[in-house]
Amino acid sequence: MAGSSPEREPVAARASARRGIPPATVARLPGYLRALHALAAEGVVTTSSDELADRAGVGSAQLRKDLSWLGSYGRRGVGYDVEHLSSQVEVALGLTTQRRVVIVGIGNLGHALANYSGFADRGFGVVGLVDADPAVVGTTVAGLVVRPLDELRAIVAATDASIGLIATPAAAAQEVCDALVEAGVVGILTFAPRSLRVPPHVDVRAVDVASELQILAFHDHRRATGA
Questions:
Q1: Are 207 and 166 in contact (CB under 8 A)?
Q2: Fold that domain 6-92 belongs to in CATH
Q3: Are 47 and 107 a contacting pair, CB within 8 Å?
Q4: Helix (H) and strand (E) counts in the chain
Q5: 219: which strand partners?
Q6: For the range 67-71, what are the long-range contacts, defined as Cβ-Cβ under 8 Å and sequence gap of 24 or more?
Q7: Best CA proximity match to 103, nearest among 79, 124, 77
Q8: What is the bridge-based pairing of β-strands 203-206 and 163-166?
Q9: 0.85 exceeded by the pTM?
Q10: What is the CB-side half-sphere exposure of residue 20 using CA atoms within 13 A?
Q11: What is the CATH number of domain 99-212?
């Protein structure tokens, strides 16, 4: 791992590198951060690219290339400073300030998401819960009162939420998505099994459990048939 210590890299150079980080690299950064946090919890101060890559499930060459986009090259014979590299990845991912989240759809999945403690550990705060069912509106989940959908804009404005989680049935997902966009949300994570249309300034990520299971079924079928 050749190169100077990341602490000596010019701040402007690091910022410039972050602006052009490829999407594929961005997708791997959370895995690196998870591995770094695990190392820190074990009391590890410095780590090699081989060790970090193994924990993140990538090749060491890929890891070094990805981290070079952050202006981080490690130190020859020493490796990467775990605390400093964690900070670099957090800055690149925009995790230096807490991102506020509104969850729409407080059924079984919405309940689970609202009560998930991992959000706070990773820099996200759930600040609002919304549902269209009158039987659910007014109930309290994870310390928050569930509000009706027509109050979504007011909730986003009052809490400065920038991310919306959609945990509704597929039929309602586009309507909810439109409402989140109109309210000012710029990032949406949807668990509804359908594609969503959003304007260019809004980012959408989808978690489709059924599709992932179908992909696993395909590979299992290939193994079973010897293909």
A1: no
A2: Arc Repressor Mutant, subunit A (1.10.10)
A3: no
A4: 10, 9
A5: none
A6: 67/32, 68/17, 69/17, 69/18, 69/20, 69/21, 69/22, 69/25, 70/14, 70/17, 70/18, 70/21, 71/6, 71/9, 71/10, 71/13, 71/14, 71/17, 71/18
A7: 124
A8: unpaired
A9: no
A10: 7
A11: 3.40.50.720
25 touches 98 (CB < 8 A): no
Any idea where the domains of the chain sit in the sequence?
6-92, 99-212
Output the six-digit token pair for 220: 């299992």
The tens-digit pLDDT sequence of the chain (227 residues) is 333 333 333 333 333 344 588 989 999 999 999 999 999 999 999 999 999 999 999 999 999 999 999 887 777 777 899 999 999 998 888 887 889 999 999 999 999 999 998 888 888 999 999 999 999 999 999 999 999 999 999 999 999 999 999 999 999 999 999 999 999 999 999 999 899 999 999 999 999 888 888 989 998 888 888 75
Please report, in range form, the residues annotated as the binding site for NAD(+): 105-110
8 Å CB contact between 71 and 3: no
Which burial class, exposed, middle or buried, applies to 172 when counting CB atoms under 10 A from its CB (0-12, 13-18, 19+)? middle
